[in-house]
Amino acid sequence: MSVPGPLETFPLGGSGLRVTRLGLGTAPLGNLFTKVQEPDADATVDAALGAGITFVDTAPHYGLGVAERRLGRRLAQVPRDRFVLSTKVGRLVRPLEAGEMADPEGFVATPAAKRVWDFSRDGVRRSLEESLERLGLDRVDVALVHDPDNHEREAAEQALPALAELRDQGMVRAIGAGMNQAEMLTRFVRELDLDLVLMAGRYSLLDQGALAELLPACVERGVAVVIGGVFNSGLLADPRPGATFDYAPAAPELVERAGRLQAVCARHGVPLRAAALAFPFGHPAVASVLVGARTAAEVQDAVAMVGRPVPAELWAELVAEGLLPGQVPVPTSRCAGSTPTTTSGTQPAGPTRGWTSAWRRSSATSGRRTWTRPPGRTGSARRSSCRRSPASRRPRSSWPWPGPADASRAWSAGST
């Protein structure tokens, strides 16, 4: 598949939405690891919109609502049809009780609040209502179940069906799940009717954990994949001792491997960051890559890196050096209409589906909101539930839900 320009768009599953190939992840705007000043937060969002990026992802988790508030403040200045907005459910933001301490989970300078897991139907609706309040907007386009690593049954039986109801009623255009592991996402894709998944950290130059099962399942089911964590939280942006991999100090062997990746890229005159951003687009399931940024300069760098050509010889050398598996699909050229290929020349097929609806909230009611469709929109023709019909399911060997998967600590919003 050709390496896209950052402003090219791609269908987001069967939702009818199209997203730019490069999206903005907002975990850094929630003060992940480092406090971001308000002018820098504003400038970051403005730089992304100014560059033509129209896909933006956020979550209540990011700074306990700080990222949503900052993002909404800038998006309010832009016509609503100019961007696709994604947020997440699963964590409610609640005030701390007297004497209570909350785990900051890597975020600094956050409000005196805590995260409360809630994947119930009512929790999903409360979460979305509160996100809209923080954003100051009347709708989001995409709603994702966020990090249900230890809540698989609740996510599958309550949260995702609740989102499917809203989608079927025309109140949200696309639904899915965002995680740092591929195994549970694969089960969701095979058994439930999703539009997309957000896969963080498991499809990068250092980790292709999503390649064997998740990505093929998404191609087969017509589910779009959004990739986050292409730099694996920092190591592939700056491979050095002390860099982070999955939000923890990278092991020496990973630092050494990243250094080898960088050396191959240097021999071909390509920054490692450019190769890391290009790599996911070799797979036909991938619709967009999210990059987290905390300054306008980081946004500008990401746009420039996506625009850098990556020669086929670079990918071939990475395979020859044992740094990529031989059957991994890699980008070919930037020519429009190029076909996806693997390093052995095979051509995987991509997903196609289509449907359109929208999400709005009624501001005419007092108390709890009612969820309403815009006039003329219908959703009943699309799906009646989140569960796939039996005829469309693959054979299953480990169902119903297995126990909670052992998964790494997750932020799934494409932070660098």
State the main characteristics.
single chain, 416 residues, alpha/beta, TIM Barrel, 10 helices, 18 strands, 28% helix
In short:
This protein is an alpha/beta fold and 416 residues long. The protein has helices at 38-50, 66-75, 121-135, 152-168, 183-191, 214-221, 252-267, 272-278, 296-306, 312-320; strands spanning 9-11, 18-20, 22-25, 55-57, 84-89, 91-95, 113-117, 142-146, 174-179, 196-200, 224-228, 244-245, 248-249, 286-292, 329-330, 341-342, 360-361, 371-372.
Strand content: 15-25%
CATH topology: TIM Barrel
Backbone shape: globular
- Spans where pLDDT lies below 50 across 5 or more residues: 334-384, 390-416
Which assembly state applies to the chains in this document?
single chain
Query: Termini separation (Å)?
Result: 24 Å
Number of helices: 10
CATH class: Alpha Beta
The whole-number mean of residue pLDDT values reads 84
The side-by-side strand order for the widest beta sheet comes to 3-4-5-8-9-10-11-14
Give the CATH H-level superfamily: NADP-dependent oxidoreductase domain
